[in-house]
Amino acid sequence: MRVLVTGGSGYIGSHVCRLLAERGDEPVIVDDFVLGLRHRIEGMPAHELDLAAPGAAAALAELMRSEGVAAVIHLAARKQVGESVARPLWYHQQNLGGLTAVLEAMVATGVRDLVFSSSAAVYGDADGVVTEDSPTIPVNPYGETKLAGEWLAADVAHAEGLRVTSLRYFNVAGTGWPDLADTAVLNLVPMVLERLEAGESPQLFGDDYGTPDGTCVRDFVHVRDLAEAHLAVLDALPSQPEPHRVYNVGTGVGASVREVVEGIRRRLVDAPPAIVRPRRPGDPAAVVADVSRIADELGWSARHDLDDILDSVLAARA
After folding, report:
1. Which of 50, 75, 250, 254 is the most exposed place for a label (fewest CB within 10 A)?
2. Quick one: pLDDT at residue 186?
3. Is the pTM higher than 0.70?
4. Any catalytic annotation for residue 142?
5. What fold does the segment set 2-172+220-249 form as a domain?
6. Alpha carbons 316 and 175: distance in angstroms, whole number
7. Which of 142, 169, 209, 247 is the catalytic position?
8. CATH number among 3.50.50.60, 3.30.110.40, 3.30.450.20, 3.90.25.10, domain 174-219+251-317
């Protein structure tokens, strides 16, 4: 089956594409290559296209026809929270404009099945164990674009007979293959590594939360597990009983920021100790995914733990 993967040269997208190729499917990649890396998808058909640009929907539809695309995995998006706060108009134009082009192209070509990359950011300042039915109150424009994207995809699915599943990612980390490692310093693990490799102390923002060690607790999911969740959803879409479905993708197990930092320090030589900074506004004490729905309905569950994540990251940097 030929599967269109938007954002396929990115960190998550390249893992999805490699798994598709390994099992015999044919990923067709569309990317603007602003942040993606071409070496991650070497040997795979790739097309450069800005999905938010004028005329993108028509160009994408023509590509889908010529490539014989049967399903779509839409990962392409802007995802920096701070940037979204500074440029909300641009973020809505980019993320919702790109999704609109994908949906228009699907309707035009009769392609029915879509896996949409959403985010746990739709839950906003949620605290504790989060289910798919928890309140969705985003606290930044990035999260708003993901929630609005779910609404848009659901509306089009109902109106046009599509089958859409939105995946709400929690904290993605690790690498399935060394050459697909996360090179952007935007998430906790690469941020800690950057400071340690520069000989600087990693930072803990608050150590007085009501958690076992006083630091924030989060759900860290291995990127390979996340990629496998996409394939499980893709396979289930043809028999999905409703136009739109939502799943959390995490481990269901929390790890504290201190656990992550100390786990990285143990794997390095002479790593300086962490220093404690004041709390950051808006950081909830603990957020962990309830992943029972995707386990019960699709049989998917994460296979890797925090040690696997950290081992894979350090091995990729060796």
Report:
1. 50
2. 82
3. yes
4. yes
5. Rossmann fold (3.40.50)
6. 8
7. 142
8. 3.90.25.10
